[in-house]
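sry for the spam today, last one i promise. struct tokens for design, 196 residues
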């Protein structure tokens, strides 16, 4: 009976996982279409504020979907790991099930040591900060919504302060982005270097 409940829960997790992924990209598609409609022929001040609000709302929904996706993936990993024992047929079977493959870096270190060669390569590539940032749907969606915010903010600044205000805001934005990237790089290096 308990095994059937776990199977039913796992099937529900897969179905819900698929619907969340579909919803994330449907939302992104509607967002791009809405930006196109709002920005068609230039953006007036009230349209820029509308776009800013729309971007904030879409990003809040995206963050919630991301949290749900993460929690579902972790629960599915627990099912694959504990009750099912990775569905392995014996001690020489190194099979890694679906959700565990999605989140290799969340696997227990003992399990990571037993991974097949192709998954070891994938795990090592995930430790590369740049690869981790660019090989992610979430980062791509973050960039999409960031561009929406930047376009809306740029339009608002241009409407209020003209071209010189836009140039100054761009310089401040670039300086801030550079400082943040430097901070993240230093933080990543500290977390990946062993103490002397």
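last one done:
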């Amino acid at each position: 009976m308990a095994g059937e409940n776990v199977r039913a829960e796992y099937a529900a997790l897969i179905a819900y996982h698929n619907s969340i992924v579909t919803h994330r990209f449907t939302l992104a598609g509607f967002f791009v279409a809405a930006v196109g409609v709002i920005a068609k022929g230039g953006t007036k001040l009230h349209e820029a504020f509308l776009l800013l609000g729309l971007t904030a709302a879409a990003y809040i929904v995206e963050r919630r979907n991301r949290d749900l996706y993460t929690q579902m993936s972790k629960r599915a990993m627990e099912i694959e790991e504990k009750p099912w024992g990775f569905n392995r047929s014996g001690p020489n079977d190194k099979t890694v099930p679906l959700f565990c493959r999605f989140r290799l870096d969340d696997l227990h270190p003992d399990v990571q040591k037993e991974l097949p060669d192709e998954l070891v390569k994938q795990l090592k590539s995930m430790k590369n900060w740049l690869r981790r940032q660019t090989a992610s749907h979430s980062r791509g969606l973050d960039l999409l919504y960031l561009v929406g915010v930047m376009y809306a903010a740029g339009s608002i600044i241009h409407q209020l302060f003209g071209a010189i205000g836009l140039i100054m805001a761009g310089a401040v934005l670039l300086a801030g982005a550079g400082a943040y990237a430097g901070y993240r790089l230093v933080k990543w290096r500290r977390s990946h270097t062993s103490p002397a």
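The chain has one domain: 2-161. ok im logging off now
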